[in-house]
Design goal:
Elements lengths: L2 E5 L7 H15 L9 E6 L5 E6 L4 E2 H7 L4 H20 L2 E2 L8 E3 L6 E2 L6 E2 L21 H5 L5 H17 L11 H10 L5 H4 L8 E2 L7 E2 L9 H8 L2 H9 L11 H12 L11 H11 L4 H54 L6 H21 L4 H19 L9 H21 L4 H20 L3 H16 L6 H20 L3 H21 L4 H20 L3 H18 L5 H20 L3 H21 L4 H20 L3 H21 L4 H20 L3 H21 L4 H20 L3 H21 L4 H18 L12 H23 L10 H14 L7
Antiparallel strand pairs: 1-3, 2-3, 4-6, 5-8, 6-7, 9-10
């Protein structure tokens, strides 16, 4: 007889996967049921790989089987009833399946369903009654809210998944179709949004469950011999089946059926025409059920009842009018609220990654916010509504000015919006401190607010908020996947803030922690692409950290890891995926350039510029798209300068300045844009000096120094800003020296050196800052040895001694970086050059006074 053999695939033979197979073997060995695939044998191969020999089930997934056989709703329910019996059998043996979905329920030609894959099942603790795990594998579309939140997994988890399976079997669609476009939206929908009733979904175009043929009669996507039209399907599902499915899918496990047996019993009641327990059980409902079962004997009684009812009609008429008015008002309130949340969670997420969608996203969220604001004034005590309002403000802030994401670049507007979100969430969190989802939302809002403060230059305040958000999550005993994802995102942003404040080692540690968290989340929900993207982003930031530390090989490896992840997630017409790949590709090119492949790096960068120009033209209000363009020009100019293509380099650097000046006017108060403008002036100064235009070099270096001084004055603790100022002052002194202003040059070098020494002492891991200091020492070594009495330095033997001392300090830095292999191709050999200068200074006679 043919059997199915299940074993670890090549490339997945880890201890964790192997343990899961051994675990499945233990579970299946104790399960003997006609609707559960039987375990026949098990063991390990000669190389130690575990395997299972199972009953071969040749059939279709249950939803495909029902459609292929054109089963009616009643026949589908009877088939589903047998699945419930198998699950309940497993539950009685303390086994929870945890991954119930159509592909794990196969139906052979004989019509007997078979339940498969207990690979992620868990044995219940008979004393505790629940299994608690931090991370678990799951299928997002069929996973319960508690699985996403990391809460205790009980038999109610399987009840929920069975409800989703039944929803699809009867309506032909998913309970959350519009949310499935993005993992974040799907998690939000499963945890917070009530799905439409199956009868509604079966006739709603947005749920894609109906087809309209040429004759104009809507047909359900499920193929049923009895329910041949959408109208018939709607009538069949309305009432009992809507209530049964929605009760099984309740967000709160306590509100679901207590057991799968109770779910199956309600299905039996429905099939028999008896009242189901999922309804509220009104007198009229029970009477109608009774009447349908006993039509004959009730005919005469109905005539008497009709005459009695006529006498009550007039009395109840006015009461009905008042009730109807109240219901209409309540319905209007709910309709407006539903429209607003649809703007936020359905329409917005559906267009989020489309090229050129920024203005449309802004309009959608603005309208949603207007609706929710007006509703909030009418129902200020409604905590759920206030939570939706906070989400609206946070989403609007993201569109207005989220740094490093597609936005309008309005930082002040974004800060105002996110502050409102934080204010609402803080109050809600005080009232419900144990609500994990609420804690996660507040932590995320703190992180978004910190990102905006960081972009405006308020680095200390940003670091405090990052720490505040991380502390909230750290207080959660067993965080779920969604919460862990927020923690990973916060770790990346926190790492960036640490890097800017001069602690590269701690920043790299934060990035690594983020990658570890993201990896755990991806393992828990492998089909959620957004989680994998988070890990790719963390790898990019880690590459940047390694780059700053001069660890070129590690930076290249991290960038390639990011590119591989992004490439696996890329889809057509996905603006975010295209940009992610571009960022990783450029980072790879930068590391290759540091290895000496400048021309290869230039070709990559020019290719990215062409793509970014197209994106910016299609979405002209997108601040990040505009920034990508001038950053491309900046990198191209730098590579052209390295290749001695000075005319092209200078032209492109001037274009950088022009575009950045325009952006600075469009986004006033944006510290990132101001820093970009300072960088443009600085690099143009260096290029002009390289061509001998020292007057032009000095002019641009002074403009760069003006911006740097303003930034340092506004944020004295900003180590990155102080470092930039030190490097700019060196450029000013270089130009002054070339123009014969020796006294001013020496004074500038001495100031820049003092500042650089304090910066390097604060973070000795930053290779770029150590190189700046080494160059300053070398410049002073040459100048001090040639000082004249009138200049701010001693003369004679003292000058010679100081000159040698500066050269020795410079040599020590270069030699250390070379020994640690932290130098790019351009800097290799600097230690040998400084050693020759030191030797010359040691042998030369001391300068004599004139």
């Amino acid at each position: 007889a043919e059997v199915a053999v299940k074993l670890v695939r090549t490339g997945l033979d880890t201890a964790v996967i192997a343990e899961r197979l051994r675990h499945e073997r233990q579970i299946l060995a104790g399960l003997e049921h006609p609707n559960i695939a039987r375990l026949l044998d098990g063991g390990t191969t000669s190389v130690g790989t575990p395997y299972l020999v199972m009953e071969l089930v040749e059939g279709l997934p249950i939803d495909e089987f029902c459609n292929a056989r054109r089963l009616s709703i009643s026949e589908r329910l009877q088939l589903f009833r047998r699945v419930c019996e198998a699950v309940q059998y497993a539950h009685r043996r303390l086994v929870i399946h945890r991954d119930l979905k159509p592909s794990n329920i196969l139906v052979p030609p004989d019509g007997q369903p078979k339940l498969l894959d207990f690979g992620i099942a868990r044995l219940l603790d008979p004393t505790a009654g629940a299994t608690v795990t931090l991370l678990q594998a799951l299928t997002p579309e069929y996973a319960s809210p508690e699985q996403f939140k990391g809460e205790p997994i009980t038999t109610a988890t399987d009840v929920y998944s069975l409800g989703v399976v039944l929803y699809r079997l009867l309506s032909g669609g998913s309970p959350y179709p519009s949310a499935s476009s993005t993992p974040h939206a799907l998690v939000r929908a499963v945890c917070d949004l009530n799905p439409p009733a199956p009868s509604t979904a079966a006739t709603t175009a947005g749920h894609r469950t109906t087809q309209v043929p040429a004759d104009g009669v809507s047909q359900p996507l499920i193929r049923s011999a009895e329910e041949a039209t959408a109208a018939k399907l709607r009538r069949r599902l309305a009432g009992d089946l809507d209530h049964i499915i929605l009760k099984a899918m309740s967000k709160d496990p306590d509100d679901r059926y207590g057991t799968v047996e109770q779910l199956a019993d309600d299905i039996d009641r429905h099939l028999q025409g008896r009242p189901v327990k999922a309804t509220r059980g009104s007198w009229a409902y029970r009477a109608a059920k009774f009447a349908r079962r006993r039509k004959g004997p009730l005919a005469a009684s109905f005539i008497v009842l009709l005459s009695l009812s006529a006498g009550l009609a007039s009395t109840l008429h006015q009461a009905r009018i008042a009730t109807a008015n109240g219901r209409r008002a309540e319905q209007r309130f709910n309709d407006v609220r539903h429209l607003a949340t649809s703007f936020l969670f359905e329409f917005h997420d559906a267009i989020h990654n489309l090229p050129g969608s920024t203005p449309a996203r802004a309009l959608l969220v603005k309208r949603a916010l207007e609706y929710l604001d007006s509703l909030s004034r009418e129902a200020a005590a409604d905590a759920a509504l206030r939570r939706e309002l906070a989400t609206a403000y946070a989403t609007l802030a993201d569109i207005q000015g989220a740094p490093m994401r597609n936005s309008l670049g309005d930082l002040d507007g974004a800060l105002t919006s996110i502050a409102k979100a934080v204010s609402i969430l803080e109050v809600l969190h005080r009232d419900s401190p144990r609500d994990e989802t609420l804690s996660s939302e507040l932590a995320h809002a703190y992180g978004e607010m910190a990102n905006l403060l960081d972009a405006k230059g308020s680095f200390a305040a940003a670091v405090d908020l990052y720490r505040k958000g991380l502390a909230i999550i750290a207080a959660i005993p067993r965080p779920g996947l969604a919460t862990l994802r927020v923690m990973g995102t916060l770790q990346v942003s926190y790492g960036d803030a640490l890097a800017k404040n001069g602690n590269l080692k701690a920043a790299v540690d934060a990035y690594r922690k983020a990658i570890e968290l993201d990896g755990a989340v991806v393992r828990g929900a492998p089909q959620a692409h957004a989680f994998a993207r988070d890990q790719g982003v963390a790898y990019i930031h880690l590459a940047s950290g390694f780059d700053d530390m001069g660890m070129v090989d590690d930076a290249l490896a991290s960038a390639r890891s990011a590119y591989g992840l992004f490439q696996s997630l890329a889809g057509p017409d996905d603006a975010q995926s295209r940009r992610d790949l571009a960022v990783a590709n450029v980072m790879i090119a930068e590391q290759l350039a540091k290895r000496g492949d400048k021309r290869g790096a230039l070709a990559v960068q020019q290719q990215e510029l062409a793509a970014d120009l197209q994106v910016a033209a299609g979405d002209p209000q997108n601040h990040l798209a505009r920034r990508d363009v001038y950053v491309d020009y900046y990198k191209i100019a730098g590579l052209q300068s390295d290749l001695n293509q000075m005319r092209e380099a200078i032209a492109n650097e001037r274009r950088v300045i022009e575009l950045t000046q325009t952006e600075d006017k469009l986004t006033p108060g944006n510290a990132v844009t101001r820093a970009d403008l300072q960088t443009g002036y600085f690099h143009l100064s260096q290029m002009l000096a390289k061509t001998g235009d020292y007057a032009g070099a000095l002019d641009n270096a002074l403009k760069a120094r003006e911006i740097s001084k303003a930034a340092v004055t506004a944020n004295p603790a900003d180590l990155a800003g102080r470092s930039d100022l030190s490097e700019v002052e060196m450029a000013v002194s270089d130009a002054q020296l070339a123009l014969g202003r020796r006294r001013e040059a020496v004074a500038g070098y001495l100031d820049a050196t003092a500042r650089s020494e304090s910066i390097v002492a604060g973070d000795p891991n930053d290779v770029g800052r150590r190189i700046v200091l080494a160059r300053l020492y070398a410049k002073l070594g040459g100048l001090i040895g040639l000082s004249r009495p009138a200049e701010p330095a001693s003369t004679g033997d003292d000058n010679a001694r100081r000159s040698r001392d500066y050269y020795r300090r410079s040599l020590a830095i270069w030699a250390d970086l070379e020994r640690k292999k932290q130098l790019g191709a351009d800097s290799i050999g600097e230690s040998a050059r400084i050693a020759r200068l030191l030797k010359g200074a040691s042998q030369a006679p001391a300068p004599r006074r004139p």
